[in-house]
Write a structure and sequence with these properties.
This protein is mainly α and 115 residues long. The chain is 77% helix and 0% strand. The termini are far apart.
Length: 115
C-alpha cells in the first residue's frame, strides 16, 4: 500500500474515533499500543499459516483428508466479516478476512481439483 493511502486511512480513522469516546490511535498506553501491534500482526500471520497446506495440496496434487465443505464453509463465513470491515471502514478487519477468504477458497478449490 502506498504511504499516502495509509496516511489517508489513518486520518479517516482518527476523525471517526474522535467523534466517539474511544481510545485514540495510536493508543496512549504502552500496553494498548503493544496489543494493537500484536493484533495487526496476527491478522496477517494467521492467514499466512495456511500457506503450507496450500503448497502441499498444489505441489503433490493430493487433497486426500481435506474437507472441501469445511474450507468452503470457512470462506463463506469470511464474507460477512469483509463486508462488516468495509461498511465500518475498519481496514484491519477487512484486510484480515480478505486474506483468510483468499486462503480458505484456495484450499477449497484445491480440494475439489485434486480429490
Amino acid at each position: 500500500m502506498s504511504r499516502y493511502i495509509l496516511i489517508g486511512m489513518y486520518h479517516l480513522h482518527v476523525r471517526k474515533r474522535g467523534k466517539k469516546n474511544l481510545e485514540p490511535i495510536p493508543a496512549r498506553t504502552f500496553w494498548m499500543r503493544f496489543l494493537d501491534s500484536v493484533v495487526f500482526t496476527a491478522g496477517v500471520i494467521g492467514p499466512l499459516m495456511t500457506l503450507p497446506q496450500i503448497l502441499l495440496i498444489y505441489s503433490t496434487h493430493d487433497a486426500s483428508g481435506i474437507s472441501m465443505l469445511t474450507w468452503f464453509g470457512w470462506a463463506l463465513l469470511d464474507v460477512p466479516w469483509i463486508i462488516y470491515g468495509i461498511a465500518h471502514r475498519e481496514a484491519p478487519i477487512a484486510l484480515t478476512y480478505a486474506l483468510w477468504f483468499t486462503m480458505n477458497i484456495t484450499v477449497a478449490i484445491g480440494a475439489v481439483l485434486y480429490r
